[in-house]
Structures are given as structure tokens and as C-alpha cells.
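Question (not urgent): is this output format expected?
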Amino acid sequence: MRTRRLDWGGSDPASLAREIRLAAPSMGEAGERVREIISLVAERGDEGLREIAVSLGEPTSELRVAPQALSDALVALDPAVREALELAKANLEAVSTAEAQAAGAPVVTELPQGQRVELVSSPVASAGLYAPGGRAPLASSLLMCAVPALVAGVDRIAVASPPGPQGIPAPTVLAVCALCGLDEVYAIGGAQAVAALALGTESIDPVDVVTGPGNRYVQEAKRALYGSVGLDSIAGPSELVVIADAGADPGLVALDVGAQAEHGDDGPLVVISTDRALCDEVGKRATALAEASPSIADALLTLVLAPAIGPALELSDALAPEHLELACADAAAGARERIAGAIFLGAGAATAFGDYAAGSNHVMPTGGSARFSGPLGVGAYLRRSSLVSLPAGAAAALAESVEALARAEGLPVHASSARARAAAPEASASGRSSQRLT
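Got this back:
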């Protein structure tokens, strides 16, 4: 593992955060290729998907996976792995159900003029879930996407995951599909999978929302297709910031950094400490770990020596990382105000638990987007609507204000519409009162 050390005086955390992020690979090359892929899928549909598969050396068998392959994978699954998946699923369901109860409750307001405004949430009709392949097939990511969608009540759920040598996704991914009762599964990976789910092809109906993590190409495709389809977040290369004081265990910190490096070498890994000796020891331990684990050898670890915990927290907030570990005294103080996808605190709070079985969702915003978004949850699969009920009396009470604002904005027909409604009898405004919507 490559390391670099920065002695930081504590000023201008935003500039240092930009410098740290600039060390990650650029999205420029990915963006250009992704635009080509999206155009090919949009123009040529299934045939375009097969052309892309050929160019990548992937099998070009049927796009959709046969249901029998799903059930076979679940039967063949290692019992210990199945038990672990069922535990993780149960914990996710508990958290997602609690979220659904809070998010799904209607918000009703009766206003002084007599109108009633109700905010209601309903599940989207369809969702596409992306399960990455990459260095390792992430069946756990599919579980993280599927459980909130199921709890939300999404009617149609489609899954896309890269094909292996046999032309179908990894057995563990297929087993999770069977475990969750999902049978619309496609052997498609990368940006082309996102494009197919968002735009549709001859054999794949488009979905309302696409969720799931992935590499730079997957996330750039999500970015490019935003507006054509709903998205969870830009959940790309894994990120970790650890804030550690002299009391932290450098061996544990190095292991946590190495664990996130296993997801890829293009996301920022940062340890911010007030103790020079701890920075040095974490660097040594991480280097030794990489020598024994070649898959993390190319990752870059940035070690920042900070003057105090306060500036360290400010730098972390400026980075707005996917994962934040607080390995310092009084970690709980102010933890709720930190800017990160997930904040881990406590003696056992390694990010690996959040990645698998703690009950939190590991599909989280990256690239600094934790500033305005959060972990995947039930809310990603819900759409909100306002129900606005205005009896004639409310229309009359509001009409003068609406007319004044409409004329001030140069919209006279708005003013006329409001005035006419205020003058109309109750029944004539919306048709006969006995009529029903069907």
C-alpha cells in the first residue's frame, strides 16, 4: 500500500480536502466511454448489449437468467454463508421497517383559510438493482438494495449483475436473488446495465429507480442518466476516513483501512491523527498488510497529522466521506453532526460490520456527496405527492393573495383562474359531487 504523510497546521480544511480528493483517478476517461455505451444501448437495445459483451470478452448467452439457476444457487450455497446472509437480511429488515414506519406516515396540515395539504408517500412501481462484480461479486450489496425495496413495497424489482465464465452472475448473487424472492435477473454488468435498466431494451422494461454501488463507469452512467431515471446516490469507489488519537490501536486502524482498500484502489483512504507516532505506526502496519494482501497493494493511504481533534473533525466534514471511524476519546460527542454516509464509533465499530451485518446499509454516497445525501434506504424507493383539498371557502380566502402575486409575476391567467374558482359554486368547480375517480 502506498502511503503519503501530510503535516497540517489546521487551517483551510476545504483546500486540503480538495487536494486529497484530487489524488484519486479522474472520471474524465470514464465519462467519455460511458456516453458511448449509453448511446449504443439507447440506439441498438439488446444487440448493443451483446456488442458490448463481445468487446469485453464476456459470454453472449441469454440476457435473462433462468429461474432454475436462482433456486439451484440457493440450494448449493454454503450453509454458513446462508446463515450469515439470513442474519444480515433480518437486521436490514428491522432497520428498514422502522424507517418505513417513519417515512410512510402521511403528514396532514389544516391551514387557516380552510384548505388541507397532505404529503403522502407511495412505492415506485419498479426498481433496478445493480450488484457489482469487479474484484469480488458483492452479493451483500444486492441484499442492501433488495431489502429496502421489498419493505417499501416495490411491485417489480429487476436485478443486473455481470456474467461470470458460465454466462450468468456469481452463484452468491443468484442465491441472494432466490433468498429475497427476486426472479427478474439479467446477466449484464457495468454502465451498460445501468443504461438498460434506465432506458429499457426489447427484452428489458425500463425501471423508475436504479440503485446500487459500482465502479467509476457504473456511477458515471448513473450520473449521466439522472433525470431519465431516479437514483439513490453516486455510490462509487469506497472511501474511509479514520480520526484517531494517541489512544487508538494502530493495528486495528490499519486493518480497517485495508478492509476498505479491498473494494478498489481509486477511493480516498485517510487517517487523521493528533499523534505522530500513531500515524507512523499505522503507515508501517498498512504497508505490511499490503505485502501479505496483494489485492490492496495499489491503494493510497493518506496520513494527516492534525494539531487537534477539532480541526481533524473539520477536515473530515470537508471530505464528507462514505465511511467515518471515530477512534478517539469522547467519540460520541458531536457524532450526530458529522458529515459522512456512516459514522462508526465504539470499541467494536469497524466498517466491516457495517459492510455486512450490523443492520446499516452499506450503499452510501461517495465523492463528497454525503454533504447532501445519505445511505440507501426505504426512502429511495418511495415517491411523494401532495394532496391539496381546497373547498370554495378556502379558494375565496386565498384568491386575493394569489391574484396579487400572479399579476406581480406577469401571469394574468393565473389570477383569472384563482378568481374564477373563488366565485364558482362548490359542486361546479370539480364536477358533480357524486362522481368517483376510477
